[in-house]
Amino acid sequence: MAGDPRAEPRGRGTRPVGALVVVAAGLLLAACAGPSPSAAGPVSTTPVAPSTLPPTTTLAPTTTLPPTTTTVDVGALPQTDALPSPDAPSFQAAMQALFAAVVSGTPGSAGAAFFPEAAYVQLKDIGDAAGDFTGRLEAEYDLDIMAAHDQLGPWATGATLTSVVVPMQYAHWIPPGVCDNGIGYFEVANSRLVYAEDGVTRSFGIASLISWRGEWYVVHLGAVLRPGPGGTVLDPGPGPGVSEPSTTC
């Protein structure tokens, strides 16, 4: 008898419905689980620590400025009635500078010991105080330093200043109106620079020191009244010498 044409061919039997459901469920679970490690590569399970580095800050280049120095001209300041001390470090340093200029024969390096020009312009009650300062006082100071340099002779470079004798017992106040001065000041005459040269103690004098704001300054080195043109050395000789009293202004 001929078979039913809708019948399943032999050898390709129909699968039970339960088996299909199990297969479908397995496929669904595999899809939900994602790719296997072999397919997606190894997965790190080490936690990443939060960064502890500070934020990066870009600073502008630092510019170092040189220190500001201000030099005050003491001669432009007002006078005081303070009596100077010969032991003041500033005065001793100025005398060292003066003697070094004598030793080297360089008057230009002895400015610290000389009376300030601006103070002289304030002090003098004359028509051209600035011209008198440069044309007479300063010029005579330079000539006297060179004369003292010549006085030291061939051993000048080995001479050293050992002391400065200022006869404070003769220091006196010069009031305004005396010697063409409009401002008062202290004056002391005949101080002495004592030095050692070639193993011998010698000295020479400073004709006049006057005060400005409590400091002594040289105003006349070799002489107050000049004996003639050229430089002058005041009373050079062996030993510390003697400071004679005087009432110059």
How would you characterize this protein structure?
The protein has 249 residues and is of the alpha+beta class. The protein has a domain of 165 residues. The chain is 27% helix and 18% strand. It contains 5 helices and 6 strands; from the N terminus they run H-H-H-H-H-E-E-E-E-E-E. Strands 1, 2, 3, 4, 5 and 6 form a 6-stranded antiparallel sheet that branches. Helix 4 crosses helix 5. The N terminus is likely disordered.
Based on the model shown, name its key terms:
249 residues, alpha+beta, 6-stranded antiparallel β-sheet, 5 helices, disordered N terminus
Helix content: 25-40%
The coarse overall form would be globular
**Which structural class should the secondary elements be placed in?**
alpha+beta
Mean pLDDT: 81
Number of strands: 6
Low-confidence stretches: 1-60
How many H/I helical runs?
5
Separation of the first and last Cα atoms:
169 Å
What oligomerization state is this entry in?
single chain
Binned strand content: 15-25%
Cα Rg: 51 Å
What is the string of helix and strand elements? HHHHHEEEEEE
Major beta-sheet overview: 6 strands, antiparallel
Q: Summed up, what is this model?
A:
The protein has helices at residues 17-32, 37-40, 89-104, 117-123, 129-152; strands at 160-165, 172-174, 185-197, 200-212, 215-220, 234-238.
